[in-house]
C-alpha cells in the first residue's frame, strides 16, 4: 500500500493564497482570502479536506488528524491539542474537533493523513486557524465616539460627516505577535502609521446591532517595529445610523458611529501589552468626508484632508478627547463570512458629452460599487458623479426608479497635481454615470468602475450551444454578485437594499452552483434567527432594518429552505441543530394563529408577488407593488414546510416531532384538496402557480396527477401562448416541475423564449443583469429595479441539475445523480461545480447519431449516470465497451437509456443513438 502514496494528495483551503491548493475549511466554513488566518469563536470547529488523485474509484477508509499549538510541534507529528489517531471513517467533511478545550487567542495548526482503498497519503500541508475573543471580558477597552451631531452633519438628509479617531503609542521591545481586534460601527477603515490595514471595504458585515455585532481580526505583526506608532480609524454611517429616519415605526436605527478596538501585543520576551479604546484617544468630525450614507452617496472635500492624521507626530491639539458612549447591546461575534472587497475593475466603454459640461460614462454592464476617478484642476472645483442603471430616450440618466435615493457622489479638489479619489462608505447600483463639473474633457482612462461584493470564489461554470442560455447565466452571475452585501439584498440602487426573505427561497439554492456562499448564508440564517420575536414571529426582512412582521408563510418560510439548502449542499448538520428550535417555534406559531377550523392556513401577505401582466402593454406604467393574498399559496407552502420539518426532526433526533409533523402534513393535504381541488383537474383559479405548487409539493392525489399535468401544459401552451405567468412564488418551482413531469422540452422553451414574459425578453431589451419585473422596460418606475435576483427562481438549479446533470442525492454530493436533459436544439452543455468534496464536471456533446459525455466525479463520491444510448453494447468509455469493464456497475438498460453506477475519476463515454 505504501508505495502508492505519491498518487494521492490532499487539497486544503488555507486562506493565505488564491490558489486551489492553498485553501482550508475550518469549522465547516470556508476561510476568506485574507493575508492572515481566520479568527473564529466556535469551540468545536469542523474540519474538511479534499483528496486529489488521478486514480479511479478512490474511497477514503480512515483518517488521522493532528492539531497542534505550534507549527514546530506539528512538524514533529505532535498533536498536543488533538491527536485523533487513526479513525475508520469515509467522512472527509464536517469532521468535528474533539481535542482540548480551546481558549481565546489560541493558535491552532493542523494536518491530516488519509487511508484509502488505493493507498495511504502523506501528511497534508499545514492549515491554521486562530481563536477569537470568546468572552465579553476579553474586550478590555470601552466603546468610544461622539453620541451627538456636529455642525458638519447634514441632519435633514441623514448624512453624517465621517468620524476620525486616533491614538499614538510606543513599543519599547521587539514584537513577536500583534493582533488587532476591531468593531467599528457602522463602517470603518483602520490605519497603522498612515497605511490601511487589510483590503476589505464596507466592513464589518451588517447585522441587527442590538442582537449581534461582527468584529474583525488582523495580524499586524509586520507593521510594528520597536518605536513610536499611530493608530487611526475612520467611521462611516453604514446601517448603524439609518439612511432614513422619518418613519421610526418602520426603520430601525442604532445611533451614532462608535468604536471598540484593542491591539494585543506579545513581545519576544513573553510580556504583553494591550492598546485599547479609552478617553485618551482623540477625535474629530471635521475631516474631508463631509457626508456619507448608503442611499445618497458620499461628499469628499479634499481641501479638508488631514495630512498625516494617522501618522506619528500629527498635530491633534484641535481634536476633541474621545467620549465614552453607550454600547450597541448585541453579542460580540467573530465575522466568519467573507469581507466585501473590490473584486473587479471595469473600464467605461464610452464617454459621451451631453452639454453644459456634462458627460455620460457607460460601463457596458450593470453592477454595484462605485467609481474611482483621476482629476486635475483648481482648488475648490466640485465634481459631481450621479449614478443610474439606464438612460432616458434622450440619453439622459433615468433616475426615477431610484425613488428618493440620490445616488450621487461629490468631490471637491484640493488643487495642484493629479488627484485620485474613490468613496469609502457608500455604494451604488449602476451602469451609467453622469459626470459634471469635471475640469477639462474627461476620457475613459480617468475613470474605473469598482465592482464590490463579498469575497467568495466562483465555483460553477456553464456554457452551452445556446447563446441565449449562456447570456442569461452571465446576467444571473452579475446580478447575484451585485446583491451580496454582507447579507443578500434585493437590489443595489434604490432607497431599499433590504434582505427580503421572499426573494431567495429557491433562488439561493441556484446561487450555490455559482458561488462558494456557504459562510454567507450561514450568517444570514443567524440574522433571521435573531430577528425572531419571542412568540415565534419571523419578519419579511432580516436583519429587520425594516420592521415588517406581516405573518405570512412564503417569506419567513425561506428560513427553513435556506437551512435545507445548506444541509444538502454542505452536509453541515449543525445548521439544522442550531436552527431547529426557532424553525419549530415559527411553524407552530403560524398554525396556532392562522389555521382555520378546516385546516387551511388563511394568512398570506403577497400572493404570487410580481406575476406578469397579461401583455407588455397592459403593464405599461402600472405599479407592480400590489398584493394578492392567497390561502392556496400559504397552505401549499405550509404543507411543504411541514414535510421539511419532518425530515429535519429525524436528522436532529427529534423522533416524536417527526410523527407530529407528518400527522399535520396529512391533515393539511386532505384540507387542501377539499378546499382547492376542482374535479375538472386543476386547483384554485387554475393559475399556473397554483397548479405547479400542488404538483411539486406532492399535494395531488395519485389518480389526479395526469389531468393536472395536462392543465399545467395547457396553462403554458394555450392560455399563455407558450410563456410563463408566474410571479416570485411560482417561479421558484416551475422549471423542475415541468422537467420532472417529463416536459423538459417545455421548460427549455420557457428558458429560451425572447418574447414577453421571459428571461430572454430581458436580454433582448438590453438587460445585463436580471430585472425585478418581467415587464421591467414598461412598468411604473416606483418598483422597477433592473438588478434583482428573485425572478431567477429555480432556473439556475435547472441549468446545473437538469441540463448538465449535476445533482446531489445524499449528504453533500456523496451520491450524485447525473441525468442530463437532451432537449430542443441543444448540441452541447459544458458545466462544472466545485463541491465540498471536489470538482464535478459534465460535458456532453450530441450529434444526430452519437452522444459523447465527459464526466468527473470527486473522491469519496459515487454517481449514477443515465447515458442516452440505443443499447448497452453501443457505449464505450476510453475506447472500451463498458460492459467489458468491471469498474462499471450496470444498473438498467431500457428505453434508449443505460443506467450505470461509477466511482470517482474522470471518464469519457461515447454512445450511438
From TrEMBL:
Protein name: alpha-L-rhamnosidase
Record domain Alpha-L-rhamnosidase C-terminal: where: 805-879
GO molecular function: alpha-L-rhamnosidase activity
Highest taxon listed in the record's lineage: Bacteria
Cross-referenced Pfam families: Bac_rhamnosid, Bac_rhamnosid6H, Bac_rhamnosid_C, Bac_rhamnosid_N, Ig_Rha78A_N
GO BP annotations listed: carbohydrate metabolic process
Species the sequence originates in: Sphingobacterium olei
Annotated SUPFAM superfamilies: Six-hairpin glycosidases
UniProt entry keywords in alphabetical sequence: Hydrolase, Signal
Catalysis: reaction(s): Hydrolysis of terminal non-reducing alpha-L-rhamnose residues in alpha-L-rhamnosides
